[in-house]
């Protein structure tokens, strides 16, 4: 049973990291290039792409957290790595909460002159989430090698 839980845990963590990296480094730059100076259309498409994904990511985070806890209960050796991973996941989840329930509503209703600052802030937040989740994933790989 442990290998199945580990595959689920690692697979979903990889999906979250990969999805964030793809959005940050591929989708967002291509949208900017495609729409050029047409900021309104780019914002509309960005909001459309993001719409409805909040609860999917919440579910993804929940399954990652529960499967991580199960793995810890099944093998508590090197528990400190799991504790660090949990702190990183909690921090990334906090940023996700802020982005989903605070930042996006502000961005959707922002005036055109407010958008650049909000876009820069989102890039910083997304990059921070990516670093946190990537570090957690790397620690999981390290834990499997110990």
Largest sheet: none
Topology pattern, helix = H, strand = E: HHHHH
User: What is the count of helical runs?
Assistant: 5
- The dominant shape is elongated
Gap between N and C termini, in Å?
Answer: 20 Å
Strand content: under 5%
Our Rg estimate from Cα atoms comes to 17 Å
Class from helix and strand fractions = mainly alpha
Average pLDDT for all residues: 93
**What's the count of strands?**
0
Helix amount: over 70%
Poorly predicted sequence stretches spanning 5 or more consecutive residues: none
Structural overview:
With 146 residues, this protein is an all-alpha fold. It has five helices and no strands. Helix 1 packs antiparallel against helix 3 (54-74). The mean pLDDT is 93.
Explain the layout of strands and helices.
Elements: H1 2-35, H2 39-50, H3 54-74, H4 79-108, H5 115-145
């Amino acid at each position: 049973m442990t290998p199945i839980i580990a595959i689920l845990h690692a697979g979903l963590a990889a999906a979250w990291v990969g999805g964030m990296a793809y959005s940050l480094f591929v989708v967002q730059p291509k949208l900017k290039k495609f729409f050029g100076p047409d900021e309104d259309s780019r914002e509309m498409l960005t909001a459309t792409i993001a719409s409805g994904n909040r609860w999917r990511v919440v579910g993804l985070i929940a399954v990652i957290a529960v499967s991580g806890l199960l793995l810890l209960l099944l093998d508590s050796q090197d528990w400190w790595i799991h504790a660090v991973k949990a702190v990183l996941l909690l921090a990334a989840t906090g940023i996700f909460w802020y982005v989903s329930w605070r930042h996006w509503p502000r961005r959707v209703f922002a005036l055109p002159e407010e958008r650049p600052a909000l876009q820069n802030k989102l890039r910083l937040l997304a990059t921070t989430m990516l670093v946190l989740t990537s570090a957690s994933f790397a620690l999981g790989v390290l834990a499997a090698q110990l």
